[in-house]
Amino acid sequence: MNSEARKRAAEAGRAAEANAEARQLADAWDREAYDEEARGNGFAAVILHAHARELRAALDHPDQPLSA
Prior knowledge:
With about 70 residues, the chain is mainly α. About 80% of the residues lie in helices and about 0% in strands. The chain has two helices and no strands. Helix 1 (about 5-40) packs antiparallel against helix 2. The relative contact order is 0.11. The mean pLDDT is about 90.
């Protein structure tokens, strides 16, 4: 494997790791939203779910603009 191939492989690995971490963050936001909803704080739950949904959309469709 030449140096360019090694660089591409390393970059792909880092990108996959960052993507997995971002998905874990979205999952954590959803869990926190469920906790907030259980405590009667529906507003916080809506915001947290929206953030998780936006993050997943950005990961799944990076070419699409984010909503404002």
